[in-house]
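Section 5: illustrative case.
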């Protein structure tokens, strides 16, 4: 593992996390009908901090290693899609478009985990909680959309 790369990947995760500061849930989200299994708002920053640290750890474990080109490309794709979801959902209030983004993000994260499993088991395991959280988040996005239909 190259620990000098860890802060670089953590910085990329920090950029994705910054969208949560720029596009806060606010009154619009508070007014939406949500399922009873919606976590409290205070849980999200804690969960995302842990997940971002694990993502940075996984990337730093494999970056520069032979066979890491595909995992690194998928890591880049998932962090880009991760960065996109918050402005689409909370900024534009486009729940349907956000669902498409998070489903693409979930596919990228699953592909990332699969590609990591071929070169570093621990890196793969570090991504598994992220995949689980994305499944939950996608289900939550879909449930909120179903409870709050949008025109178009």
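Designed sequence:
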């Amino acid at each position: 593992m190259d620990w000098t790369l860890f802060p670089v990947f953590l910085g990329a995760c920090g950029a994705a996390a910054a969208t949560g500061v720029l596009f806060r849930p606010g009154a619009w989200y508070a007014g939406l009908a949500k399922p009873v299994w919606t976590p409290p708002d205070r849980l999200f920053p804690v969960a995302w901090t842990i997940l971002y640290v694990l993502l940075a750890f996984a990337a730093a474990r494999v970056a520069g290693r032979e066979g890491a080109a595909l995992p690194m490309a998928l890591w880049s794709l998932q962090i880009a899609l991760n960065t996109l979801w918050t402005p689409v959902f909370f900024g534009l209030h486009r729940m349907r478009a956000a669902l498409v983004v998070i489903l693409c993000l979930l596919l990228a994260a699953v592909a990332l985990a699969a590609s990591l499993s071929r070169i570093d088991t621990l890196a793969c395991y570090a991504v598994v909680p992220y995949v689980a959280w994305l499944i939950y988040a996608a289900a939550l996005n879909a449930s909120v959309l179903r409870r709050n239909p949008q025109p178009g």
